[in-house]
C-alpha cells in the first residue's frame, strides 16, 4: 500500500474479502467502494482479471474500513458517513438533518412528468412540500427548467442542505426556498400552482419500536413520523392543496405501503377529481394523485 490512496486490484480485492468476513452484504460494501472510493462496479469486475492494475481511490482503504465498521457495529448509514447519496441522475449532499432520499421516491418525478407534459411549454409553477435534501425540487427543476419552483421545509437545517444541493445541481433554475409549515409560507401564490408534490412524514408513531434501528436512530424523526395513524401531515397537505393548486393542477403524494385506501379517501373527501394510485417498482401502492377541480 502507498500513502497516496493508490492500491493494486489485488490489494483491494483482499481488503474487500476481509471486510466481508466481518459481516454485512457485498452490495453495501460495493456501494461504499463506489461512493466513498470512486470505484465502479465495472472497475471491480476488471480488477478480478487484471489484479496488478493500480487504482486511485478517493478515500484510503483504512478510511473505508473505519466507515464500514461504523456501519456494521454502530449502524450508522453509509450515506451519512460519506455525506453523499446518488438519486436519479445526480448526487446529493446529505447529513443527519435530512432524510436519505429513497429510490422509490424517484418514481414521483416520472409521475409528475407524465401529468405536466401536456402543459410543459407554458411557464408553470410547482411546489415541493417537505423538500429535505431538495431531491424532488432539483429533479423537477431539471425537467422543467422554464418553470417557477418553490421548496418548503419547516427544518432550517434541512433547508440549508437543500439550498446547497440546489446551487450545485440546479444552478440555472428559479426555486424559491421557504421555511415554514406546509402551505403557510406560500400565501402569496395560493391558487397558482400547477403541481404540488410531497413525500411527507407518514410512519405511524406506533411503529416506532418496529422501525429498523438504522433508520430510527439516525434519520430525523421530523422526517419520519406522521402522528398517531401516520396521516397527520398528509391530511394537512391535501386540505391546503385545495387552496394552493390552480384549477386542473395536480397533487402527487407518497405514503406508507398500507395507507393507499385512506389517502385516496382523504383526497376524495376534499373534493379532488381523477383520484388514482400508483405502485412502486415492487407493485405496492405507494403514491396517490388527485386533480384540483
Ligand atoms: C419524508 S421527508 C422527505 C424529504 C424529501 N422530500 C425526500 O423525499 O427525500 C419529509 C420532510 O418534511 C419536512 N417536514 C416535516 N414536517 C413539516 C411541516 N409541518 N412543514 C414543512 N415541512 C415539514 C421534514 O423536515 C422532512 O424534510
Structure report:
With 293 residues, this protein is an alpha/beta fold. The protein contains twelve helices and eleven strands. It has two domains: 69 residues; 186 residues, 3-Layer(aba) Sandwich (Rossmann fold). It starts with 5 loop residues before the first strand and ends with a strand. The model has no long low-confidence stretch (mean pLDDT 96). Bound molecules: S-adenosylmethionine. The site of S-adenosylmethionine has 23 residues, from helix 7, strand 6 and helix 10.
Can you summarize this structure?
The protein has 293 residues and is of the alpha/beta class.
Q: In terms of topology, how is this protein built?
A:
Layout (H helix, E strand, L loop, with lengths): L5 E3 H13 L4 H10 L5 H9 L4 E3 L4 H14 L3 H5 L1 E4 L2 E4 L12 H11 L8 E5 L5 H9 L4 E6 L2 H14 L4 E6 L13 E6 L14 H4 L4 H4 L7 H13 E10 L5 H10 L3 E7 L5 E7 L2
Parallel strand pairs: 5-6, 5-8, 6-7, 8-9
Antiparallel strand pairs: 1-2, 3-4, 9-11, 10-11
Helix pairs in contact: 6-7
The structure holds S-adenosylmethionine.
- Write down how many β-strands occur, each being a DSSP E stretch of 2 or more residues: 11
Structural class: alpha/beta
Question: Which bin fits the share of residues in helices?
Answer: 25-40%
Strand content: 15-25%
Descriptive key words:
293 residues, alpha/beta, Rossmann fold, 2 domains, binds S-adenosylmethionine
Amino acid at each position: 500500500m502507498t500513502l497516496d490512496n493508490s492500491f493494486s486490484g489485488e490489494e483491494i480485492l483482499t481488503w474487500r474479502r476481509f471486510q466481508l468476513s466481518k459481516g454485512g452484504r457485498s452490495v453495501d460494501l460495493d456501494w461504499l467502494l463506489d461512493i466513498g472510493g470512486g470505484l465502479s462496479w465495472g472497475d471491480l469486475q476488471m480488477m478480478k482479471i487484471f489484479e496488478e492494475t493500480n487504482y486511485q481511490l478517493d478515500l484510503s482503504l483504512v478510511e473505508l474500513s473505519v466507515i464500514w465498521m461504523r456501519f456494521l457495529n454502530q449502524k450508522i448509514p453509509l450515506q451519512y458517513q460519506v455525506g453523499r447519496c446518488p438519486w436519479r441522475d445526480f448526487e446529493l449532499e446529505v447529513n443527519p438533518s435530512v432524510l436519505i432520499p429513497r429510490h422509490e421516491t424517484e418514481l414521483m418525478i416520472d409521475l409528475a412528468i407524465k401529468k405536466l407534459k401536456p402543459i410543459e411549454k407554458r411557464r408553470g409553477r410547482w411546489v415541493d412540500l417537505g423538500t429535505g435534501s431538495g431531491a424532488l425540487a432539483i429533479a423537477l427543476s431539471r425537467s422543467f427548467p422554464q418553470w417557477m419552483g418553490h421548496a418548503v421545509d419547516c427544518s432550517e437545517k434541512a433547508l440549508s442542505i437543500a439550498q446547497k444541493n440546489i446551487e450545485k445541481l440546479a444552478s440555472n433554475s428559479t426555486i424559491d426556498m421557504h421555511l415554514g409549515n406546509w402551505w403557510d409560507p406560500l400565501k402569496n401564490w395560493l391558487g397558482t400552482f400547477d403541481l404540488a408534490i410531497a413525500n411527507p412524514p407518514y410512519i405511524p408513531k406506533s411503529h416506532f419500536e418496529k422501525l429498523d434501528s438504522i433508520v430510527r436512530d439516525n434519520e430525523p424523526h421530523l422526517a419520519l413520523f406522521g402522528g398517531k395513524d401516520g396521516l397527520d401531515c398528509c391530511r394537512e397537505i391535501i386540505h391546503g392543496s385545495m387552496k394552493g393548486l390552480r384549477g386542473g393542477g395536480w397533487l402527487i403524494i407518497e405514503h406508507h405501503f398500507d395507507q393507499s385506501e385512506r389517502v385516496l379517501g382523504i383526497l376524495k373527501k376534499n373534493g379532488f377529481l381523477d383520484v388514482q394510485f400508483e405502485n412502486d417498482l415492487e407493485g405496492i401502492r405507494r403514491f396517490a394523485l388527485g386533480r384540483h377541480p
